[in-house]
Write a structure and sequence with these properties.
- This protein is an all-alpha fold and 114 residues long.
- It has one domain.
- It contains 5 helices and no strands.
- The longest helix is centred in the middle third of the chain and has 25 residues.
- The two termini are 18 Å apart.
């Protein structure tokens, strides 16, 4: 779960850095902050990858990988909250279907430890 959460946070940090870059494009003095956001996002993503690495060494990838779909819901929610992105009802329903599918996979299978 740490990997999934960190991956979603990293995507939101990268999005925030791009938004800042676009707002300051052409102003060299304003590039430090977006660059710091990109670096922070990559560091958070790398940390999440380390958690993922540990998880796949302990459980089946066929069990773990569907759980990573939870990041879709986290990123969409974060996009709405932090960037004011509009998300259509159809998209929310699609995300809901993904979440229900992930829950069914998680509860219907054993962890598949290696």
């Amino acid at each position: 779960m740490a990997s999934i959460l960190l991956g979603a946070v990293a995507q939101l940090l990268l999005k925030g850095a791009i938004v800042q870059w676009n707002a300051r494009h052409g102003a060299p003095s304003g590039l430090l902050r977006p660059l710091a956001g990109v670096i922070l996002g990559l560091v958070v993503y790398a940390t999440g990858t380390l958690f993922w690495w540990r998880a796949v060494s302990r459980a089946s990838i066929s069990y773990l990988y569907p759980l990573s779909a939870c990041s879709y819901a986290l990123v969409a929610f974060g996009g709405r909250v932090f960037f004011g992105e509009l998300i259509s009802p159809g998209r929310w329903m699609g995300i809901g279907v993904i979440c229900v599918g992930v829950a069914l996979l998680a509860f219907s299978q054993s962890r598949g430890e290696s």
